[in-house]
Automatic annotation (TrEMBL):
Annotated SUPFAM superfamilies: D-aminoacid aminotransferase-like PLP-dependent enzymes
Alphabetic keyword roster: Amino-acid biosynthesis, Aminotransferase, Branched-chain amino acid biosynthesis, Pyridoxal phosphate, Transferase
EC id: 2.6.1.42
Requisite cofactors: pyridoxal 5'-phosphate
UniProt xrefs under PROSITE patterns: AA_TRANSFER_CLASS_4 (PS00770)
Protein name per UniProt: Branched-chain-amino-acid aminotransferase
Organism: Lepraria finkii
Family: Belongs to the class-IV pyridoxal-phosphate-dependent aminotransferase family.
Pfam families, per database record: Aminotran_4
Catalytic reaction(s) noted: L-leucine + 2-oxoglutarate = 4-methyl-2-oxopentanoate + L-glutamate; L-isoleucine + 2-oxoglutarate = (S)-3-methyl-2-oxopentanoate + L-glutamate; L-valine + 2-oxoglutarate = 3-methyl-2-oxobutanoate + L-glutamate
């Protein structure tokens, strides 16, 4: 089932939370164990998001306790589209960390100089993949303001991921406050007003850092938040060969090239954890991704089962626009109910805008659909466009899909995009960069650092 629609994270109740964690097949014994374990963890680590009072007071995540330590050795900001940008490893001057233990709860968070973490070799995250993360962006608007795009959605999704991976819970609105504190501090320097239309990639992460090698629920965890320079992947020129000279990239063909996975290769499955943003979803896919890149493709289009159900394109949600044999134009994407795909913030926004503003032009459909259906639509001239959607890729048009050794060519009628992808991308960018005022664009007040 799709996560419940709550505008304010503080409105979460115990009933709501049970809806969030309910699986598609609750009759399976192992799923009952997982659900019960999640509910018990919420009661112990974040009772404020339930209706129940804790039996013993604990320290919950509290952004008001943030301690600030200035970085006295700040770095220079690289130039736009420089090699440092494409390296995707240059972070801003500060980071936020906050530790948790089962005995004491959450400690006071620290906003401190960016730097390495310290882990013991027996840390749980290194052995059992007890790790989850989020990805969102900070935008410098054309009106000079800094904005986050729907950060409440990312904060709630990280809570959902943490519950699935045996990590401690927290109030999502406190995580959002910490994200805002970091970008308020580093935003002015790293996204100067002289560079409107630029962005930083934000990565909130939680890991279990238990010094214990046994198989058990973690008793220690570390939350940290970093901000990193990232290139734009939504130009339609793909990402294969990111180590190439940026000037050469400009000559590449427009549109992503996707390699459809084989029937015996699976990214996620019903009853698994494909819906959670955990590292265990990504590590096993890197071999296939690397091979696809080596063959000239940008991403793997992940299929599921003998029917070749379409799930995701790399780490992005995947959309097609086609005309049915009856003549109806549809925007189609995979559903959330099977908990196979990620509830992408960009995905959700695309669907909501399409339903609100394109009503009458196309029908929005969330259902299982197969690669064979796409193949038939291409052969019959009914496939109008396809695109990937996610925080990193934003709205990236797809020009070609290789399925069972055959290249399926997909139209990009607007030059570097399809018609509907182009208009949806424009609407989203207007919100992100302040050209249109919208509740999804959350303005962040910048913090002036003393000289």
């Amino acid at each position: 089932m799709a996560p419940i629609a709550i505008q304010n994270a503080s409105e979460l109740t115990s009933t709501d939370f049970k809806q969030i964690i309910t699986k598609s097949n609750p009759s399976v014994t192992t799923m009952k164990l997982t659900n019960t374990g999640i509910e018990n963890t919420v009661e112990k680590t974040a009772p404020s998001i339930t209706d129940n009072d804790p039996t013993t007071p604990i320290n919950e995540l509290d952004a008001s306790k943030l301690i600030f330590e200035r970085n006295n050795s700040p770095k220079a900001v690289p130039e736009p589209n420089s090699p440092e940008l494409w390296a995707q490893n240059v972070c801003t001057d500060h980071m936020i960390t906050c530790s948790w233990t089962s005995s004491a709860g959450w400690s006071a968070p620290y906003l401190k100089p960016y730097g390495p973490l310290s882990l013991m070799p027996t840390a749980s995250v290194l052995h059992y993949a007890t790790e989850c993360f989020e990805g969102l962006k900070l935008y410098r608007g054309y009106d000079g303001k800094l904005r986050l795009f729907r950060p409440d959605r990312n904060s709630r999704r990280m809570l959902n991921s943490a519950t699935r991976i045996a990590l401690p819970e927290f109030d999502p609105k406190e995580l959002q406050k910490l994200i805002e504190a970091l970008v308020a501090t580093d935003g002015e320097k790293w996204l100067p007003k002289s560079r409107p239309g630029s962005f930083l990639y934000l990565r909130p992460t939680m890991i279990a850092n238990d010094n214990h090698l046994g198989m058990r629920r973690p008793n220690e965890a570390l939350l940290y938040i970093i901000a990193c320079l990232f290139p734009s992947f939504d130009t339609g020129r793909g990402t294969a060969g990111l180590d190439a000279n940026p000037a050469l990239r400009e000559k590449e063909r427009l549109g992503l090239k996707l390699l459809a996975s084989k029937e015996d290769t699976v990214r996620a499955w019903p009853g698994g954890f494909g819906f959670a943003k955990v590292g265990a979803n990504y590590g096993p896919s890197l071999i296939a991704h690397g091979e696809a890149n080596a063959r000239g493709f940008d991403q793997v289009l992940w299929l599921l089962g003998n029917e070749c159900d379409i799930t995701e394109a790399g780490a992005s949600n995947f959309f097609v626009v086609w005309r049915t044999r009856e003549g109806k134009v549809q925007l189609v994407t995979a559903p959330l109910g099977d908990k196979i795909i990620l509830d992408g913030v960009t995905r959700r926004s695309v669907l909501e805008l399409a339903r609100e503003r394109l009503n009458g032009q196309l029908e929005v459909v969330e259902r299982r659909y197969t690669m064979c259906e796409v193949e038939e639509a291409v052969e019959e001239g009914r496939l109008l466009e396809a695109f990937a959607a996610g925080t990193a890729y934003f709205i990236a048009p797809v020009a070609k899909i290789n399925f069972r050794g055959t290249d399926l060519e997909i139209s990009t009628s607007e030059g570097d995009s399809g018609k509907y992808a182009a208009v949806l991308k424009t609407w989203l960018k207007e919100i992100m960069y302040g050209q249109k005022q919208h509740e999804w664009g959350v303005v962040v007040e910048e913090r002036q650092l003393d000289a």
